[in-house]
Design goal:
Length: 250
């Protein structure tokens, strides 16, 4: 049985003051022994603050992106070793808000995935189709292609102990979450695609993202191939996030 994981993606939200309130509330609400892996991903400047408040809690933290290079003249970038210094153990890679706004290629995403693994952290790879692609019935083809670049460059084994987040673009920020059946169908497709390596297929956590909230989390997380969630807006509210984490205790 795979342990479920709930990740809060704070995106470009928060301030020192609002984070302090949120982090304190989370540290208080989440019990020391929780059956679920819980992670929050604040913007880079708040990693130190997050580490300070969460270091004695079971909640882990991560970043929302990382550079594909180790160090050097890359203005504005942040490296895996820098994230490591702030205790980050997860990195979200290839979120659609980045790949569309900053034209991130599948090759870039694949390189970042490898860098995160090499640094001993866990990548959370985002995949998912747009509404037009779903309406055209090519969603599996689209997701398959997003995975193929990584497989081609590094082999299927790189997915061992990794997290894939299925985030249909049409469900992000829209209050139109995928149905549990739609999520299950894609998660099953992804697991089957990676099933030539039995260990990878069994250990790989595939989480759902896109308008997850306290009302729909339990139904989504009850599906056999849905191993948790990547939560945007609802992760900014301590009670909502706690409730979603609670829904994963199944
Ligand atoms: P929302 O939960 O706000 O729809 O965002 C989902 C998301 O993009 C998480 O990475």
């Amino acid at each position: 049985m795979r342990r479920k994981i709930v990740v809060g993606n704070w995106k470009m939200n928060g301030s020192l003051a609002s984070n302090e309130a949120l982090l304190k509330a989370l540290a208080e609400k989440i019990p020391q022994t929780t059956p679920v892996d819980i992670v929050v991903c604040p913007p880079y400047p708040f990693l130190f603050q997050t580490q300070s408040y969460l270091k004695n809690s079971p909640i882990r933290w991560g970043a929302q992106n990382v550079a594909k290079f180790e160090s050097g003249a890359f203005t504005g970038e942040v490296s895996v070793s820098m994230l490591n210094e702030f205790g980050a153990s997860y990195v979200i890679i290839g979120h659609s808000e980045r790949s569309t706004a900053y034209c991130e290629s599948d090759e870039n995403i694949a390189t970042k995935f490898m860098m995160v693994k090499k640094a001993g952290m866990t990548p959370i790879l985002c995949v998912g189709e747009t509404l037009i692609e779903r309406e055209a019935g090519i969603m599996e083809k689209v997701v398959s292609k997003q995975l193929d670049t990584i497989i081609k460059m590094y082999g299927e084994e790189i997915f061992d102990e990794s997290v894939i987040a299925y985030e249909p673009v049409w469900a992000i920020g829209t209050d139109l979450a995928a149905s549990p059946e739609q999520a299950q169908a894609m998660h099953q497709f992804i697991r089957e695609k990676l099933s030539s390596n039995n260990k990878v297929a069994k250990s790989l956590k595939i989480i759902y993202g896109g308008s997850v909230n306290p009302q729909n989390a339990l139904q989504l997380f009850s599906m056999p191939d849905v191993d948790g969630g990547l939560v945007g807006r609802a992760s900014l509210n301590a009670s909502d996030f706690e409730s979603i984490c609670h829904s994963a205790e199944i």
